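Reminder to self: tokens first, then the designed residues, so the page reads top to bottom the way the pipeline ran.
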């Protein structure tokens, strides 16, 4: 759609405060959860980080988070927000809200009106797809012979490949300047895998595989194997970066699009919403708390092993225990999108420009609010070496 529409204009001034000194961490990580159309929230978070001159050196994502991560890692820091906006304006539609009179139209005021607007927009996405992202198949998969390319999904994601190749410099991605990790699931084995520039050469197909959510989207072939959306197993790369990656002092921004906490549902529509939130939230806080407990044990074990007599230091048991120690420290900043009640269970495939801008601005303002708390940039002290922060709901 035309990028000059009412909704495509930024509605906030740049207010993020600049981080004048690089935080005392070896790694600044940006962790992006899956969530379809909600992913504009992550782009807003990154805009605030960019304005604060706080640039991650490791970006990891699942599904739509993998696309945002690829755009960030695959562009010069000065171009990243522009490319993110180009992507989100490409795949969203402004025609319905423009026809109704723009975002300030009285026809869009109130939860009932907005709920109807969102449902209509989501229905249009189901019928027509999203430009440069996915399109409906001409023939239903039920009518196609087994094994045919269109027999296993309702949509064709071939438009996404040229979009990614236009917006992402894959030579930059694979240069090692910013580490990129994207998660996907091997369809045959069921094993969860990360494609990581530390070990792999990332192409558009790897990012597409991370977002290939069945049965909507088809599996993506990579080196003879087929992969689906990583959110089928885990919708957040938190564990990959904190536990499976190198042990290093880390400042991690965990950006979630689904909140594990919510209201008890009172209608069948609210049941559908709550089911999605629980399924895709990945219980980030629970996983963070578990990591915090494990890290406290690793720190305590490290202190304990200092008092082991010299004659025991060359035993297999000592070597095993010592390998489990970790002196690294971690600050984990949670940024979680809080959905409006009117958004409903279609919020992850409602690709209107109006809603995209709302999601983007919500991420921006949550990140600006969090970055005003300078303690997140300070190296944590204490036995466990892990501090968690969540100012987005303040």
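Designed residues (394 positions):
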């Amino acid at each position: 759609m035309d990028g000059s529409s009412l909704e495509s204009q930024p509605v906030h001034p740049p207010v993020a405060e600049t981080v004048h000194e690089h935080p005392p961490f070896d790694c600044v990580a940006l962790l992006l959860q899956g969530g379809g159309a909600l992913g504009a929230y992550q782009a807003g978070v990154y805009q605030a980080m960019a304005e604060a001159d706080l640039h991650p050196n490791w970006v990891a994502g699942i599904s739509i988070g993998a696309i945002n991560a690829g755009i960030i890692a695959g562009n010069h820091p000065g171009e990243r927000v522009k490319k993110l906006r180009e992507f989100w304006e490409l795949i969203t539609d402004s025609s319905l809200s423009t026809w109704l009179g723009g975002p300030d139209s009285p026809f869009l005021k109130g939860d009932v009106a907005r709920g109807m607007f969102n449902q209509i927009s989501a229905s249009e996405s189901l019928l027509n797809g999203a430009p440069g992202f996915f399109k409906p198949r001409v023939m239903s998969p039920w009518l196609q012979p087994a094994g045919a390319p269109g027999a296993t999904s309702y949509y064709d994601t071939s438009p996404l490949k040229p979009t990614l190749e236009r917006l992402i410099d894959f030579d930059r991605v694979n240069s090692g300047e910013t580490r990129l990790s994207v998660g996907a699931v091997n369809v045959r084995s069921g094993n969860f895998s990360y494609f990581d520039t530390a070990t792999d050469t990332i192409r558009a197909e790897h990012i597409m595989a991370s977002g290939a959510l069945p049965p909507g989207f088809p599996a993506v072939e990579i080196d003879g194997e087929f992969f689906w959306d990583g959110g089928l197993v885990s919708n957040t790369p938190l564990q990959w970066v904190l536990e499976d990656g190198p042990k290093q002092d880390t400042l991690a921004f965990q950006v979630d699009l689904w909140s594990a906490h919510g209201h008890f549902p009172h209608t069948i529509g609210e049941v559908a919403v709550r089911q999605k939130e629980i399924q895709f939230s990945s219980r980030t806080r629970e996983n963070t708390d578990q990591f915090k407990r494990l890290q406290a044990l690793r720190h305590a074990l490290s202190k304990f092993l200092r008092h082991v007599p010299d004659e025991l230091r060359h035993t297999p048991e000592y070597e095993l225990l010592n390998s489990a120690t970790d002196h690294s420290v971690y600050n984990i900043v949670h940024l979680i999108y809080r959905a409006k009640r009117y958004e409903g269970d279609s919020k992850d495939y409602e690709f209107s420009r109006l809603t995209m801008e709302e999601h983007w601005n919500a991420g921006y303002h949550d990140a600006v609010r969090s970055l005003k708390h300078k303690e997140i940039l300070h190296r944590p002290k204490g036995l466990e070496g892990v501090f968690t922060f969540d100012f987005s709901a303040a």
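The first strand starts at residue 27 and ends at 32.
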